[in-house]
Amino acid sequence: MIVVPFIFFSLLTYYWWKKHEGFDVCVYMSGLYTLTSFLAIIIVLGNLLEEGGILFDNYDLELSFLPTICYCAFLGIGMLPFSMIYKKDLKNININNPLVIDALSCFLILIALLNLYLVADSTIEILSGDLSTVRTDHYEGIESPAQVKAESMPYIFRFLYYFNVSTLLAIPLFFYYLCFGKRPWWFTLLLFFTSLSMPIAGIQSADRTEVVFYGMMFISCLILFHPHLSKKVKKILRFVSIPVAFAALTYFVVVSDARFSKRDGGAATSALQYAGQGYLNFCFFWEKAKTEYITAEREFPLIAHYVFHIDNDDYRRSVRSGQQGFFMSVFATYIGDILLDLTPIGMILWVVAFFIISVIIFKWPHREELNIGELLAFFVLSIIPTFGIFYYRFMSFTYTFMVILVALVFLLEKYKFKI
């Protein structure tokens, strides 16, 4: 069974690559799952189980037919709507209400400046210190310097900081202005700076995830917009992106070495286990999860936070891990998280609902034009299967604020307002 996901996603990647006559967003998504499935094979053949977040050990590995087929089928269904947008067919992204998008862009820039104010005093000190200790402090609930500083601000600013997650929308907006928008260069550059807000904030807890997430979504947008970038813009983009990418890679390596160099196999083996555990842990969840514990705080985090006062935090995860009898904060892909929360039947219904919503938004294949609301919706929905090689990203209520912003833009773009 271990080779089935690799064969399935390899064939799916090749099929979409041939059908779309090139490298597309859906090819990119499927390629990511091909890679993680290949790494799972290496983990099993190399006897690298039991560590790095992999729940199976070398003696109880159980990769059955049904969970393997469900893993392939439902991940494929989740990616299928994104094959409706052909990169080579997309000619334009229009905008009905430029002032709305400018206002959104300015709002995101202000949030990024707020984030810069909070982290400016401590970032260099953290990077020059013991990153392993910084991460341990985070796991133990010790507040970062930025968190301490944020608590001293008035409530309105603390609430606005919830929108720091929404600065991710600056990635597609940055590319939109590069290709189709007519705004000064400094405004576009500010959006690029804004898009880096979450990785910059992640330094406070020596976090690698935000860097990986940012890189994956930036590449996704680059693939979509690449045909529309002029030669001059491509040169400028390389000039700006290369040092940023180098800094991000250096940070990733340094943090990984600080955190995992003392483990057997070192940081390289930990990175392999980090990336290749999705299929293995999905099968573990399928076989071992107790279906009587149904909870939806990760699927409806805003309701859980404000109505039931439940958050998907370390305490809540430890309680749920105790109920299940195994540590649940591992990577089992996004459908694995939904499976654990809502049982296999709930996972199937959730994926079908995600498929239907995505198809309704994207409308039909071979579209030559999208509006800016559809572009942002495409970006937000694509986060789920793209970063879903690890886990369900929208488990925090702060992500719901981003979804609400995109939903408002999506609805407003249906009409043209005269101002």
Q: How many helix segments?
A: 20
Q: Which consecutive residue ranges, at least 5 long each, have pLDDT under 50?
A: none
pLDDT averaged over residues: 91
* Major sheet: arrangement of strands: 1-2
Q: Which structural category fits the helices and strands?
A: mainly alpha
Q: What is the H/E order?
A: HHHEHHHHHHHHHHHHHHHEHH
Oligomeric state as shown: single chain
* Beta strand count: 2
In whole angstroms, the N-to-C terminal distance is 60 Å
**Strand residue content:** under 5%
Q: Which shape, going by the Cα principal axes? A: globular
Task: Give a quick account of the main beta sheet: strands, pairing sense, barrel closure.
Answer: 2 strands, parallel
As a percent range, the share of helical residues equals 55-70%
Our Rg estimate from Cα atoms comes to 21 Å
Structure characteristics:
419 residues; mainly alpha; two-stranded parallel sheet; 20 helices
Explained architecture:
The chain is an all-alpha fold. Helix content is 66%, strand content 1%. It contains 20 helices and 2 strands. It has helices spanning 4-19, 25-45, 65-79, 98-119, 123-127, 131-139, 145-151, 155-160, 170-179, 185-195, 197-202, 209-225, 231-260, 266-276, 278-288, 301-306, 314-324, 333-362, 372-387, 397-412; strands spanning 92-94, 369-371. A two-stranded parallel ribbon has the order 1-2. Helix 9 (170-179) runs parallel beside helix 12. The protein is globular and about 65 Å long. The model has no long low-confidence stretch (mean pLDDT 91).
